[in-house]
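EI: anyone free to look at a 318-residue chain?
SC: sure, send it
EI:
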Amino acid sequence: MAKSSAAGLLTSVDSMFTTQEERDNAQRSYVTDLPIAEISDFPNHPFKVRMDESMTEMVSSVKERGVLSPVLVRPMPDGGYQMVSGHRRKMAAELAELPTVPCIVRELTDDEAIIIMVDSNLQREQVLPSEKAFAYKMKLDAMKRQGQRTDLTCEPVAHKLKGMKSRDIVAEQAGESKDQIRRYIRLTNLIPEIIDMVDNSVLKEKGQLQMALRPAVELSYLTEAEQKDLLETMTVEDCTPSHAQAIKIRDFSEKGKLNPDVILSIMQEEKPNQVEQFKMPRNRIDKFFPAGTPAQKIEDTIVKALEMYRRRERGRER
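SC: here you go
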């Protein structure tokens, strides 16, 4: 009887500090080592698994200590398992030539798996714009299919988000504004070569064309054929459009007047940030100006002095 009472008390205490979802998941989850060959990647996984310095370090760690944190997989109806969270750990284990990897095996629906996959990967230190774009879209579509369910989150958050639209919930959980979520999702309408340029703006790889988010969003409204014409021009001219140029390109597209000649004409316009700058160490001219003189006033004074010098030199030539 005492044992039964103790067990009942533990169950009661456990119920106080866990959500129903957590208790349900605990009943349908277990941890085991699985052969890596039996685990397939998540379909259309939006997060890139890169062979970078971080991966090299992870492989070294896995060789020395193994995979310390289990990956999350779900069993598939036709046998085998599908990765939900842990693609980088799986790749590190493969490169370290481990036969198995520790796994949390959990029964999940397609939409549950999508939401967990997106949320877990968004915690990475660096998430590229293209990754956010397709991840947010996948999560938003999954939530809409579920009828804007929020019960896949912990109860306090679900209560807080009750009655909100799916896009608002995605924004709240991601820590982004809903307008920013919309901008990222627009990127999914870009051809791969252009969305790669947006990623390059984060990766800062030398020799690669880079594009900021705002102009890329404007270009996402172009047709695929127009984007390919633009890509050709960007490649030849070795530059990408500014936000103002992208707005102009989109405007011509919406009016049905965009063609390669128009694109070239717009792209050849001088951007404010492309005007050649002349720089001089401040300490070379400080002695000529009182302390605290604004930079614009210094610039104007130097230009006036140069104009006077030019007039004097021309007078001497006469």
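EI: Confidence is low (pLDDT under 50) at residues 1-17, 148-161.
SC: 👍
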